[in-house]
């Protein structure tokens, strides 16, 4: 689980997608890896962060849901529900298609 920078925002069609926000994620083996947040999208009233590895910007990306605790501190969580995952992927692909 990683904290999300407070200056995340949802992008409109005029955003250039040049980001400086990075997060450190830990895999199931305890290995840490730095990711850059390249987009934040909203689907069904929830926000999702699209991340790419800092050391492999052309590598496979990761999509995680942005949740917050009782104090309003944001954190990233895996999307475990297949239906939720499908909705997020469809929304992201539609947004990418619109940008092209």
TrEMBL record:
<feature type="compositionally biased region" description="Basic and acidic residues">
    <location>
        <begin position="1"/>
        <end position="22"/>
    </location>
</feature>
<dbReference type="Pfam" id="PF06949">
    <property type="entry name" value="DUF1292"/>
</dbReference>
<dbReference type="InterPro" id="IPR009711">
    <property type="entry name" value="UPF0473"/>
</dbReference>
<protein>
    <recommendedName>
        <fullName>UPF0473 protein Btus_1907</fullName>
    </recommendedName>
</protein>
<feature type="region of interest" description="Disordered">
    <location>
        <begin position="1"/>
        <end position="28"/>
    </location>
</feature>
<comment type="similarity">
    <text>Belongs to the UPF0473 family.</text>
</comment>
